[in-house]
Amino acid sequence: STRSPCGPRVRGRNVAGKVPLGVRKKNLRIVVTGGAGFVGSHLVDRLIARGDSVIVVDNFFTGRKENLMHHFGNPRFELIRHDVVEPILLEVDQIYHLACPASPTNVVGTLNMLGLAKRVGARFLLTSTSEVYGDPLQHPQVETYWGNVNPIGVRSCYDEGKRTAETLTMDYHRSLGIEVRIARIFNTYGPRMCIDDGRVVSNFVAQALRKEPMTVYGDGKQTRSFQYVSDLVEGLIRLMEGDHVGPFNLGNPGEFTMLELAEVVQEVIDPNAKIEFRPNTEDDPHKRKPDISKAKQLLGWEPTISLRKGLPLMVNDFRQRIFGNPKTVLV
Ligand code: NAD
Ligand code: UDP
Ligand code: UDP
User: Fewer beta carbons within 10 angstroms: which end of the chain, N or C?
Assistant: First the structure.
């Protein structure tokens, strides 16, 4: 077992504390809340591949068993249907906390996972969001920027929930010495992304495949920075394994207007795909682009997959989920 019989463990060191830097304990036990979701399932793939034991806690609110089915039967993998709003007792070394409904219960789930981290001495990583910057008055966004969030807007529940989750995380760290990490994730796309939750990349890709017009909200000149999911997973693991609390921006600094995104989707999927303008939603941030200097410097991390390289990598997955698997031809 990797656990000492009582109390928190000293991470990455043997009894004499002489293990050189960078050598980590083998075979960690890791819980991934929200592990049946888009990002979580890719993270689980990486952790299982490197030899760790992974417990996924998910209530399938937006996640899907299909995202994890390839691990069923692996003795190092366990899937628990559970709502993180309810307390749970587990024995683990690390907690990746991704479970997040866009509702105030977000905060309760985070509190429970921090309570779990405290009880077993696990390291806790919060997946926060670029939305903590709101409609930013600083561009690009640096971690030291406090943000411009409307507390009573239609998006506030998610934004303020994550801001409160960050606050709780830092309070547990400062007052109880819990080892914590905070990632501020910028728009991420890739295979297994929800097809119908209204995010712009999934909408455009699904619309182009279905030969429907791509719905551009507003004038389409608002910008976002799109990160491929494997780059994010690499960043999350480096953050968890590293020595820095954060918060760290994890995102791709390449900045695109929604019209430019639509053009890339045309290039990749269908040059004849049409564009249709729709009224924009309230409080839509005008610009968003991460400053990732801190992650570059302290985690040695930066994205490697551009939008033009990454988009084609999700098209097959979307095609199969929209049109069904092509029949296997036996020869
Ligand atoms: P997702 O919806 O695919 O995954 C979230 C998972 O959490 C789902 O499997 C869902 O079933 C589960 N879940 C929700 N509420 C739960 C609860 N109460 N108890 C247990 N499980 C619950 O979303 P994702 O894109 O994979 O996002 C993962 C995390 O990253 C989230 O915390 C999200 O806020 C954050 N994030 C994602 C992006 C992005 O662009 N994908 C950007 C910023 C932040
Ligand atoms: N908690 C949990 N699993 C644990 C330990 C705690 O779900 O292994 C929950 C606990 O039920 C509480 C929350 O985490 O709702 C915060 O726990 P903590 O011990 O920090 O606070 P307290 O219970 O002292 O208010
Ligand atoms: N958007 C769009 N068409 C869509 C969905 C979204 O033009 O079909 C726009 C939306 O108005 C926003 C941007 O795309 O300006 C990103 O939206 P998304 O919900 O994907 O991410 P977020 O706003 O959370 O960054």
Answer: C
